[in-house]
Design brief:
The structure holds two protein chains of two kinds. Chain A is of the alpha+beta class. Chain A contains five helices and four strands, in the order H-H-H-E-E-H-E-E-H. The termini of chain B are close together. In chain B, helix 2 runs antiparallel to helix 3. Chain B is about 40% helix and about 25% strand. Chain B is globular, with a radius of gyration of 14 Å. Classes of the chains: A alpha+beta, B alpha+beta.
Chain lengths: ~190, ~130
């Protein structure tokens, strides 16, 4: 066969070793794929919130798998049981694996106890996307919000996660903020665990 | 070496997504469902214990006659009912099954929380059980 080289062919995917895999994927390949994903969903829905929901669901599937894979690969099979632990896990490890760098900042919301925010100057997924005026508040970062939601929910911290633009003076493009609002039971459990 | 064991993977909502009888014990007529019953009863204990520790393996959490229940917690619960004594064997078994589970989870067409029906998965779990238990 052409190009067989030294790669062993496995009969079944369950036999392949998990390993580290390829660390990098081409950015343009991802940008094309993501733009096609957004365009396809645009033809399937009637309004913006449904579009955001679909992107979120796509991200949720990714998040669930990323959590398991990272727990196994990087953390030597230790789980996170505390709120701050899982948040810093998302903020550093997950971001590093997905986007190549840690997120810009992680803040606790001042108005409500259960709100946290991860900020990023420019989300990687948004880099090649421009939002037309008539789509208003639509944010492709809904995909990333879905990833975060997938990670949190599958770790046992159900939350509502959304992505917003936050205008910053002195900068042309607004900053992106991912807002995480945890469910009641998470706060109660945190209080119980001390 | 143990002769009988029952292995169940239960999802986050306590719905079993995979069950296997491993080992060579003959099924008792009157208590055919007993292993499943014991494991279901142990789920309550797992829920409390899961949040007290950040390690994944929870060792032995319950006893029933001469059988013990060991649990390995990720987002789903891997539960094993057995009468073996070797802790290390159990730990390695859990870790290998966890890897298998991650590989089948990575399949984008697999909905997390649905039953695992692959016969290859079955074979591999059986082989691992014979090796470690």
């Amino acid at each position: 066969m052409i190009g067989t080289g030294k790669i062993k062919q496995y009969a079944n995917v369950l036999d392949k070793p998990l390993g580290k895999g390829k660390q990098e994927v081409s950015l343009s390949a991802f940008a094309f794929l993501f733009s096609e994903l957004v365009q396809y969903n645009q033809t399937q829905v009637d309004n913006i919130s449904e579009l955001e929901t679909r992107l979120e669901d796509a991200g949720y599937a990714v998040g669930a798998r990323v959590l398991e894979l990272l727990c196994h690969r990087d953390k030597g099979n230790r789980r996170e049981t505390r709120l701050l632990g899982i948040l810093s896990f998302v903020h550093s490890t997950v971001w590093k694996v997905l986007f190549g760098k840690v997120a810009d900042s992680l803040e606790k919301g001042t108005e409500h106890e259960d709100e946290y925010m991860i900020s990023e100057k420019e989300l990687l997924v948004n880099r090649f996307i421009s939002i037309p005026k008539d789509m208003g508040t639509f944010h492709c970062g809904a995909f990333v919000a879905g990833i975060v939601k997938g990670v949190l929910e599958n770790a046992g911290f159900p939350a509502v996660v959304t992505a917003h633009f936050v205008p910053v003076e002195g900068q042309q493009r607004p900053r992106t903020t991912i807002l995480i609002k945890f469910a009641e039971e998470v706060l109660r459990r945190e209080a119980r665990l001390g | 070496m143990t002769t009988a064991a029952c292995f169940i993977i239960a999802s986050r909502n306590d719905i079993p997504i995979y069950e296997a009888e491993v080992g060579s014990a003959a099924k008792r007529e009157d208590a055919a469902q007993l292993p499943q019953f014991i494991l279901q009863a142990a789920l309550d204990i797992v829920q409390d214990l899961a949040w007290t520790t950040s390690a994944m393996i929870l060792k032995t959490i319950d006893k029933f006659n001469d059988l013990v229940v060991s649990v390995y917690v990720t987002d789903d619960r891997f539960m094993l009912l057995h009468d073996s004594r070797s802790d290390d064997g159990i730990k390695s078994f859990f870790q290998e099954v966890h890897e298998l589970y991650i590989k089948s989870l990575l399949n984008p067409l697999y909905l997390p929380g649905s039953r695992i029906t692959s016969s290859h998965f079955n074979t591999k779990v059986g082989a691992l059980a014979r090796k470690y238990l």
